[in-house]
Amino acid sequence: MKTRSKPKPKRMVASDPIADSITASPANSIPSAVAGSETVASDTALYRELYFTIWKAEHDHTKTRWTVTTFFIGISFALFGVSIRGEKSIVPFWVGIIAALVIYWFAFVVFLRFNEYTRLMRAYLRQLEDSGKIALSFQSQTDEKMRGKRKWLRSASTLLFTFGVLYTALGLVVGYWFRG
User: Fold this and answer.
1) How many Å apart are CA 58 and CA 128, to the nearest integer?
2) Each residue of 77-111: pLDDT tens digit?
3) For a tag on the chain, would you pick the N or C end, based on fewer CB atoms within 10 A?
4) What angle do CA 164, 167, 172 make, to 5 degrees?
5) Beta-strand (E) ranges in 19-91?
C-alpha cells in the first residue's frame, strides 16, 4: 500500500517577493482561484496582515534591543561607580574604568547591530505604504514627524554615540584627576 504524503499548503497570492515567501497555513489560506474584486480584497487583507505582522515583529525587536542595551550600560555604570569608590575597591582603579568603558562601547555596537534589522523592517513597512498596497501610513508619518524638528537629534544611535564620547572623556578625566 502506498501512503500519500500530506499536500503542501498553498502559497498566498501576492506579487511581492517577501509576501511570496510566506506560506499560508490551511486555516488562513487564500484560495488562488478568487477572481475580480475579491482578489483585490484578498490581496489588501494579505498586505494588511503582513504589515501588522512586520510592525509587531519590529516593535518586539526594538524592545529587545533596548533591554539588551540598557542591561550592558547599567553594568558599565555600576562598574564605573565601584571603581571610583575608593581604596576598598577589589579591582585596580584603571582596570575598572577601562572595563566600564569597554562594556559601554560593546553595548553601543550591539545596539547598532540590532538597529540594522529594525531599519530593514521599517524600510519594508514604508515600501508597503508607498506602493499603495495598504491604506496605512504609520511608518511614513512617524519618520516625517521624528526627523523634521531637530536635525542634530536624528536618532538614538547619535545620542548614544555622543553620550559615549562624553562618558569616555569623563572616565579618563576622573581616572587621571583622582588616581593619576
Assistant:
1) 15
2) 998 888 877 666 666 778 888 999 999 999 999 99
3) N
4) 125
5) none
* Per-residue CA distances from 161 to 97, 119, 155 (Å): 18, 18, 10
Q: Burial of 73 by CB count in 10 Å (0-12 exposed, 13-18 middle, 19+ buried)?
A: buried
Please state, in angstroms and rounded to a whole number, the distance separating the CA atoms of residues 55 and 138.
10
- In total, the chain counts a number of residues equal to 180
Specify which of 33-37, 99-103, 155-159 reaches the highest per-range mean pLDDT: 99-103
Q: Tally Cβ neighbours within 10 Å of residue 117.
A: 14
Q: What is the value of pTM for the model shown?
A: 0.66
Closest CA to 127 of 25, 28, 54: 54
Phi, psi dihedrals of residue 171, rounded to the nearest 5°:
-60, -40
- Say how far apart CA 63 and CA 142 lie, in whole Å: 17
The single-letter DSSP state of residue 8 is P
Three-class secondary structure of residue 80 per DSSP: helix
- Of the candidates 46, 56, 36, the residue with the CA atom closest to the CA atom of residue 134: 46
Dihedral, 35, 37, 41, 42 alpha carbons, nearest 10: 0
